[in-house]
Write a structure and sequence with these properties.
mainly alpha, two-stranded antiparallel ribbon, 21 helices, 2 strands
Length: 450
């Protein structure tokens, strides 16, 4: 059996076993990487472990650690409070705000995982507070980041346009940007209705509580209404506190919250404006907060999503073995030499989508577009449309829990069964892998032949 076939079969076996048995797929990934890598590919242990995603590991641990501290000391509650106030208490508007902010950040040059790392923890905490489906909030953040990700000044846009230029193809930067933005906005609209965004309440939480709190003596308990009702709570919180069950007029920051908010600003500026590693910056900010305010970090390390870290690390390590075995080039090379350009274009979109669901989108973009050159040189397909279709197919699947963006969403989900949520994300990403490349091909490649 060839190394390419063995590595592909190993991936299939991993999914089947993890689906049938309650075994962490990351553990299976490490075992499969060792067996397939050494037996069929001839890799040493050092070469196998070179595929471990150290950058993603630090990002997941650093971000979840930092936001665990921010959750402990009430900073996230404060941010959620003001998010509600900024939109006039209209809860149904918040998912679109998250989409828009993520899109703007990537459009002006932020790397997609960096934008998601900043926005997703706040968005998912907001979802937990107001019982918004976490899939809705998480997916709106990711699709927003991908929607703005191909502007002419963005990371993805710059890489794609450079690859097209180096291949000697006539690209169109505006078509690429608008195609990605429109496609992801359309997907976001479907997500909004499927996961109940249109049924979210329009209310002003601060108005619900201010009068009631002022009318009750200090230390008394009052019932708090909400989605399905919540237990009674004390009417007079400590100065600077923000209630977890509702919104009131006590929104002043205490010392720990002010320092944490400053740390989050530093994280945003350092990672988005100066392009520093978001995981290392988050870890550094978290350590400083732990030193300055040691009580606020109590139990924060336990809230790091270690099962998610194991899962992502093991699977991506195995994907490194699969790539080293030449499986991606094996499949992509066969597609690019097909005689039927239209069918070849569709299959190339699928290759880009499937591989990118597990690997770096930047790497897949750089490898897949050159594979399309033989098809485009035949003159039957429009270059801007084909490039945009590959770009969308490559990045639309970044909702996968095995990608950085999807992993950040899973790791920051609150108040739910994380394993069940992971399966929901996996099912959704499977649907996207099956349908996304086809829709991109229909919308952007097929019209070029008409």
């Amino acid at each position: 059996m060839s190394a390419q076939i063995a590595s592909i079969l190993g991936l299939v076996v991993m999914f089947v076993v993890a689906t049938a048995l309650p075994i962490n797929m990351g553990a299976l990934g490490f075992a499969a990487a060792f067996l397939v890598g050494q037996v069929f590919v001839g890799m040493s242990a050092t070469q196998i472990l070179a595929g471990f995603p150290g950058d993603l590991f630090v990002t997941l641990v650093g971000i979840t650690y930092l936001f665990a501290i921010a959750q402990n000391n009430g900073t996230v509650d404060w941010l959620v409070h003001y998010a509600v106030r900024l939109v006039g208490g209209r809860i149904s508007v918040i998912p679109w705000v998250m989409f828009a902010v993520s899109a703007v950040l990537t459009a002006i040059g932020a790397v997609s995982p960096g934008a998601v790392a900043i926005i997703a923890p706040i968005a998912l905490r907001f979802a937990a507070r107001y019982r918004i489906h976490p899939m809705l909030m998480g997916l709106m953040v990711v699709h927003g980041a991908q929607g703005g990700g191909f502007s002419p000044i963005s990371i993805y846009g710059g890489i794609t346009n450079q690859v097209v230029k180096n291949a000697g193809l006539p690209g169109d930067e505006i078509v690429l940007f608008l195609s990605s933005l429109a496609f992801n906005a359309a997907v976001a609209l479907v997500i909004f209705f499927v996961f109940g965004g249109h049924r979210l309440p329009v209310r002003r939480p601060s108005e619900d509580f201010e009068g009631l709190v002022d009318a009750v003596p200090a230390g008394a308990s009052v019932p708090v209404s909400g989605h399905g009702g919540t237990p009674a709570r004390p009417a007079a919180p400590r100065p600077g506190a923000v209630h977890r069950e509702g919104e009131d007029h006590h929104v002043a920051l205490d010392r720990e919250q002010a320092l944490t908010l400053t740390g989050l600003v530093v994280l945003a500026v350092a990672s988005l404006a100066f392009n520093l590693n978001v995981g290392l910056v988050a870890m550094s900010v978290a350590v400083v907060l732990a030193l300055v305010c040691p009580r606020g970090q109590k139990g924060a390390v336990d809230k790091i999503s270690w099962s998610t870290v194991l899962l992502i690390g093991g699977v991506i390590t195995y994907i490194g073995v699969l790539q080293k075995a030449g499986a991606v080039d094996y499949v992509g090379g066969g597609v690019s030499t097909m005689a039927a350009p239209l069918l070849g274009a569709l299959l190339l979109c699928y290759v880009a989508g499937v591989v990118s669901a597990f690997a770096s989108s930047v790497a897949v973009l750089g490898a897949t577009i050159p594979l399309a050159v033989p098809l485009l040189m035949q003159g039957h397909l429009g270059v801007p449309g084909m490039v945009a279709a590959i770009a969308i197919s490559t990045t639309i699947v970044d909702v996968s829990p095995f990608s950085t963006n999807g992993a950040l969403v899973v790791a920051n989900a609150h108040g739910i069964d994380r394993d069940a949520f992971f399966r929901q994300m996996l099912i959704y990403s499977g649907i996207v892998v099956l349908v996304g490349p086809l829709l991109a091909w229909l919308a952007l490649v097929v019209p070029g032949l008409l």
